[in-house]
Amino acid sequence: MTDLGDGTRCVHAGLPEPAPGDPFLPGPVFAAPYHLDPWQGQGSSPNGYGRPDNPTRRLLEAAIGELEGGDCRVFATGQAAITGLLLAVLRPGDTVLLPADGYFPVRAFATDVLETIGVRVVFVPTAGPYPSLEGVRLVLVETPANPGLDVVDVAALAESAHAAGALLAVDNTTATPLGQRPLDLGADLVVASGTKALTGHSDLLLGYLASRSADLVGAVTSWRTATGSVPGAFDSWLAHRSMATLDLRLARQSANAAAIADLLAGRTDVTGLRWPGLPDDPAYPVASTQMRRMPGVLSFDLGDADRVARFITAARLVAAATSFGGTHTSADRRAQWGDDTSPGFVRLSCGVEDTADLVADIAAALDAAGPA
Ligand SMILES: *Cc1c(COP(=O)(O)O)cnc(C)c1O
């Protein structure tokens, strides 16, 4: 389906061949064990036991794999996919490069778990500069990084990683596979949270990994079966159902983010505005060539925690909530979760509301919040 547009691919991704009497997307298959052929045993059907495999999950993996351009495995959460990759690939004595400004729980896992089992962890800012990759086993980048929204040139980094014998993994959560295709850019692996914009309805947790390397997919699949971090059939089905509208949701979210970025850029009472789609944003030169569309997430600073609370309280259309990429606009003051952002730092996730409504609401709420 590579000749078709994003919207068409999202609608058809992972669906079985049409058959009279069948639904478009088969409903969730709830099963722990399945009937086996008593003579042939477990080789008689792809379905034997629910931890290694499930038919609902297989369809979802086909859908995400089609959009990312690789073989996909889904996990219970994004955190399970990323920590599963790290633990499946890294051995004591290995060195891993992680983003200094990336998803906070992954950084915490690296220092709390990886370092204690003898893995050397090097934190590098997403925007660089990157050190020599000689002796590095795995480079994991997040681009755009959450929550700071810096980006890195994936094709250039893939080249230097491969020259040094390192693997490159890209966390594609913020961009989604419609925003960028890291495997096409030369990355060995994609990992992501499907909890965010990919499924986009704020009602499930999901993670995934995709790769064109059968060895890497095999290693991670074994890890997943051994540790059991699989999503349930209902969440897998709901995720697949939600992906049909990914193109539509991202289009509106991105348009809303562009309008809000314009609004905020014109206000003197908002500092530190970041959105990779703004031509004067430091991320723009790389983002505008590497990304196929801009994310619906932007970040800025309102000075202090109290002003953030006044802003969110005054807004009718901005929910106080963490996570991002959902249909409802939400704002998160990241410092409340203990990450290393400043007290007034806000990550705003634009939903799919009408652009004019959102711009008017946010402008009025900033006015009502007053100065810091
Ligand atoms: C949310 C997020 C994760 C973790 O995903 P969960 O589904 O919450 O476990 C990983 N990476 C990034 C960039 C995220 O935003």
Determine the mean pLDDT.
Answer: 97
Structural class: alpha/beta
Kindly state the number of beta strands.
12
Name the ligand types.
Answer: pyridoxal-5'-phosphate
Percent helix:
25-40%
Taking pLDDT < 50 over at least 5 consecutive residues as the criterion, the unreliable ranges are: none
Number of helices: 12
**Secondary-structure element order, N to C:** HHEHEHEEHEHEEHHHEHEHEEEH
* Radius of gyration based on Cα positions: 21 Å
The portion of residues forming beta strands comes to: 5-15%
CATH homology-level superfamily of the largest domain = Type I PLP-dependent aspartate aminotransferase-like (Major domain)
**CATH top level assignment of the largest domain:** Alpha Beta
CATH architecture term of the largest domain: 3-Layer(aba) Sandwich
The tally of structural domains comes to 2
- Give the strand line-up of the largest sheet: 1-7-6-5-4-2-3
Largest sheet: 7 strands, mixed
Q: Provide the CATH topology of the largest domain.
A: Aspartate Aminotransferase, domain 2
Question: What sort of overall outline do the alpha carbons produce when their principal axes are compared?
Answer: globular
Measured distance between first and last alpha carbons = 51 Å
Description:
The longest helix has 20 residues. 36% of the residues lie in helices and 15% in strands. It is globular and about 75 Å long. It is α/β, with parallel strands linked by helices and 372 residues long. β5, α6 and β6 form a beta-alpha-beta unit. The mean pLDDT is 97. The strands form two sheets. It has a seven-stranded mixed beta sheet. It has a five-stranded mixed beta sheet with strand order 8-9-12-11-10, with helices on one face. It has two domains: 238 residues, 3-Layer(aba) Sandwich (Aspartate Aminotransferase, domain 2), CATH 3.40.640.10; 123 residues, Aspartate Aminotransferase, domain 1. Pyridoxal-5'-phosphate binds next to α3.
